[in-house]
Amino acid sequence: MGFRCGIVGLPNVGKSTLFNALTETAAAQAANYPFCTIEPNVGNVAVPDPRLYQLAEIAGSAKIIETQLAFVDIAGLVRGASKGEGLGNQFLGNIREVDAIVHVLRCFEDGDVTHVEGKVDPIADAETVETELMLSDLESLEKRVPAFIKKGQQGDKEAKIAASVLGQTLDLLREGKPARLTKPKDEEEARVFSQAQLLTAKPVLYVCNVEESNAANGNAHSQRVFEKAAAEGAQAVVVSAAIEADIATMPAEDRGEFLSELGLAETGLARVIRAGYALLDLLTFFTVGPKEARAWTVHRGAKAPNAAGEIHSDFERGFIRAETIAFADYIACKGEAGARDAGKLRAEGKEYVVQDGDVMLFRFNV
Questions:
Q1: Which pLDDT tens digit goes with each residue over 180-204?
Q2: Across the beta sheet with 100-106, what order do the strands follow?
Q3: Where are the alpha helices (DSSP H) in the chain?
Q4: How wide is the angle at C-alpha 20 spanned by C-alphas 356 and 201, nearest 5°?
Q5: pTM for the predicted model, two decimal places
Q6: 38, 74 Cβ separation under 8 angstroms
Q7: Which are the contacts of 176, defined by CB distance < 8 A and separation ≥ 6?
Q8: Rounded to an integer, what distance in angstroms lies between the CA atom of residue 18 and that of residue 195?
């Protein structure tokens, strides 16, 4: 499953440079002028997970398949995007199709790289983009909520639910607050709210693009962004797009030493993925055998049949049970046979909630 993240921000903050580095492609043109990205570029990235390689080594798997993460490089938003400025409507439509927003903020000083607002202020930049997204949501709901209220008064149950939850959202937007602060009172309201596909309902990951010298610990600009993220219940990471661009062109065997020299324990990609997983409340389970070891992604709280369905719809439809081994037990017992002998292999039914790191074999009958 993975997830689909839309990379947004003002022009010239390093979005396309970061996209190119993360996906190790040159699909997005990185240039020092606004709107160099017109059509959204999409790059699929393998999610690194050391556990997968440990499992594959024990099982003697012939192939290793990581789960995939999709990055969508969306063109720079500017003030007035909600009214169509800078091809804004097209870009807002691209944002609507992603699961989460990766908001790249310029946290570096460089006189050679122009800033669309004339100064480096990541908080103001974040507010500019957020305001445009809120204005788009506000315009949408001001048209839809009155219609829902009218239908609800005529006895339409679904419209009544929509009027209640989206009316709450409309009030928040009018106060200058994002839709994600809406609190649906039950599962029905949560479903209707989700179906509304509001831009400011999407979870946000702030990526602070800093100079190479601040890649390990950030700077005063990134510190302000982290404080903003904490206040909002969002996530934030520090990345140097310039360093990521260098790493992308290096042989894999040289990357560890390069990172170590810079005081970094891992790549920016790894930090973005981990923060993204936390943001969307995702976890990983594994299937392991002699043919392949494979990682899969589900939302936290998913039950065994949901996990089976990630592999194939037939697995979910005909689910019987899941033979499950915790990752630590699989390693300690040196594989499935050892785990079975030690009593660490469990037969779990339809109500089993999948745990991060579970090694699973699904039994089904269609």
A1: 889 999 999 999 999 998 999 999 9
A2: 41-46, 68-73, 4-8, 100-106, 204-209, 235-239
A3: 15-23, 50-59, 88-96, 122-153, 157-174, 187-195, 220-232, 241-248, 252-261, 268-280, 304-311, 313-317, 327-332, 336-341
A4: 55
A5: 0.79
A6: no
A7: 134
A8: 30
